């Protein structure tokens, strides 16, 4: 396969993976976010600062008053994963959905 075709194929795979990641991340629930913050001992303000959003954005989502953009969801996932949190979605764990802290 010529280099240009390989590059295009790789680029298309990455785009598909990004779309899938945004879809998967959109299943973040307010309860999962509260659980993740609790495991890290982070306040809403701490998370908001790390994600670069307002405190009201985090608190509004956690009480179900607001929804988050795909970009904000992706950023939250990235911040939590860097801190050691793995979110469990769609009953993947025998314990159901939630958040797990990796030591």
Give the topology, please.
Layout: H1 3-25, H2 30-40, H3 44-51, H4 55-62, H5 70-82, E1 85-88, E2 98-101
Antiparallel strand pairs: 1-2
Helix pairs in contact: 1-5, 3-4
Describe the structure.
The structure is a single chain. With 103 residues, this protein is mainly α. The protein has a single domain, classed as 434 Repressor (Amino-terminal Domain). Helices cover 61% and strands 8% of the residues. The chain has 5 helices and 2 strands; from the N terminus they run αααααββ. It has a two-stranded antiparallel ribbon. Helix 1 crosses helix 5. The chain is elongated and about 50 Å long. About 5% of the residues have low confidence.
Structure at a glance:
By secondary structure, the chain is mainly alpha-helical. It has helices at 3-25, 30-40, 44-51, 55-62, 70-82, and strands at 85-88, 98-101.
Tell me the domain tally: 1
Instruction: Round the Cα radius of gyration to an integer and report it.
Output: 16 Å
Strand arrangement, major sheet: 1-2
What CATH architecture would you give?
A: Orthogonal Bundle
Order of helices and strands: HHHHHEE
Kindly name the structural category. Answer: mainly alpha
Average of the residue pLDDT scores: 79
Going by CATH, the homologous superfamily would be lambda repressor-like DNA-binding domains
Keywords:
103 residues, 434 Repressor (Amino-terminal Domain), single chain, mainly alpha, 5 helices, two-stranded antiparallel sheet, 8% strand
């Amino acid at each position: 396969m010529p280099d240009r075709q390989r590059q295009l194929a790789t680029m298309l795979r990455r785009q598909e993976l990004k779309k899938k990641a945004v879809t998967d991340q959109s299943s973040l629930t307010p309860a999962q976010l509260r659980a993740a913050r609790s495991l890290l001992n982070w306040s809403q303000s701490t998370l908001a600062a790390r994600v670069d959003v307002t405190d009201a954005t985090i608190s509004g989502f956690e009480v179900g008053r607001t929804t988050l953009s795909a970009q904000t969801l992706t950023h939250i996932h990235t911040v939590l994963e860097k801190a050691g949190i793995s979110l469990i979605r769609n009953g993947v764990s025998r314990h159901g959905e939630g958040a797990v802290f990796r030591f």
